[in-house]
Amino acid sequence: MGTTRNTDIEIEDLRNHSAEIVATLRKLLAGGAAIHPDPKREGFYEVESGALTHYIHVSPVSGKILLLATWRRAEAPAGAYQAA
């Protein structure tokens, strides 16, 4: 996934995360955060943010970003991949 500098990145939150988490993810994506592709699923990524990891999907058709899950990095992401 390429790095973007657009601060108006549209993120669809599928799990009712707080507005703060969505805003943090938007800033991370706009600022060149550490993004790791999911080796099991094309178009799915983990985005690291301090103590949190955000699990997203980027639509290959529309480019829309879907926020699927967020967890503390010290925790195992149990169930996070099933959310996709």
Structure write-up:
This protein has one helix and five strands; from the N terminus they run βαββββ. The protein has 84 residues and is of the alpha+beta class. It has a single domain (11-83), classed as 2-Layer Sandwich (YaeB-like fold). The chain has a five-stranded mixed beta sheet, covered by helices on one side. The chain is globular. The two termini are 18 Å apart. The model is unreliable at 1-6 (pLDDT under 50).
Would you summarize the structure shown here?
The chain is α+β, with helices and mostly antiparallel strands and 84 residues long.
Features:
84 residues; alpha+beta; YaeB-like fold; five-stranded mixed beta sheet; 5 strands; 15% helix; globular; disordered N terminus
Task: Give the helices and strands, then pairings.
Layout: E1 11-13, H1 19-31, E2 35-37, E3 44-49, E4 52-58, E5 65-72
Parallel strand pairs: 1-5
Antiparallel strand pairs: 2-3, 3-4, 4-5
The topology string of helices and strands comes to EHEEEE
Shape assignment: globular
What profile does the largest beta sheet have? Answer: 5 strands, mixed
Low-confidence stretches: 1-6
Number of helices: 1
Radius of gyration: 12 Å
Structural class: alpha+beta
At the first level of CATH, the class is: Alpha Beta
Q: Using DSSP, what is the number of strands? A: 5
